Amino acid sequence: KLSGTLSKSAEPVKQAAVLGAGIMGGGVAYQSASKGTPILMKDIRPEALDLGLSEASKLFGKQVERGRLTAEKAMQGLNSIVPALSYGEFKSVDLVVEAVVENVNVKKSVLAETEDHIRDDAILASNTSTISITELSKALKRPENFCGMHFFNPVHRMPLVEVIRGEKSSDKAVAQTVAYAQAMGKTPIVVNDCPGFLVNRVLFPYFAGFSLMMKEGADFQQIDKVMERFGWPMGPAYLIDVVGTDTAFHADRVMAEGFPDRMTHEGKNAVDKLYELERFGQKNGKGFYRYE
Ligand code: NAD
């Protein structure tokens, strides 16, 4: 309902920003820039900014190779992603997407800090996978300007965006976030707030079922093969490597706390062990599988 009506009256986002230049932040920056909305990309590590920009550059390069963009347009797009280590230019920003690590305390402190550097009417949206938007909003002075904006990985390929309405999110915040998702060529759905929202309430119990089978002695490669034959684009082990075992580990904790009867498991599962071994998945070249 909202995406069809309210978003029409929303102000277009002319300048965006993203916090975090990792898998998701880098993807959001590329998608925004490629659809014509300039974006500041802030991280606390210069090397993360370099990686985020080089990933975006590769994606623009592919568009040129496929004849979908001229080299000039690709260069314009890439130049509209402005890397930042400080909040210097954040007063010009209409909407900020927060995409830092999946940790409630880190997110709260980053969101509160950001709120001090943006205009009173700017919207803050978190790309959290699982953490309650109402809980995160407790760190803010203007919780009405805050909602969830949950993209899926890889951002440039996955059409869905969950826009999450927290207890205090205003219609304006939700509508503007919906409008921005549409401007990025995505399909937004407005969902209510709870740990995991909609998609991850389905996905994480699936991961939990997979982990349980591994504890019972199943082979992850066989499970992956079977799920592919079943018709899914990839099996659970490969998908967890794409997500990152660190993100999956943190998100699993949030889900277990939110749904203790459905999600808790005794002892460590495979994802916990990979995380402890710092096998973070594709992002550092080793997880369930090895990547060159
Ligand atoms: P990532 O580890 O790839 O990137 C996180 C980035 O945040 C790093 O570059 C880090 O340097 C940066 N960072 C940390 N503290 C910061 C700060 N104070 N200011 C600015 N940058 C900071 O993680 P990711 O996979 O991109 O996940 C980011 C968020 O997106 C998480 O909340 C995660 O749950 C969510 N998410 C992830 C996926 C996925 O498949 N990986 C999908 C949907 C949503």
Automatic annotation (TrEMBL):
Residues 16-194 form the 3-hydroxyacyl-CoA dehydrogenase NAD binding domain. Coiled coil: none annotated. Residues 196-291 form the 3-hydroxyacyl-CoA dehydrogenase C-terminal domain. In the central section; belongs to the 3-hydroxyacyl-CoA dehydrogenase family. Belongs to the enoyl-CoA hydratase/isomerase family. This is enoyl-CoA hydratase. It comes from Marinomonas balearica.
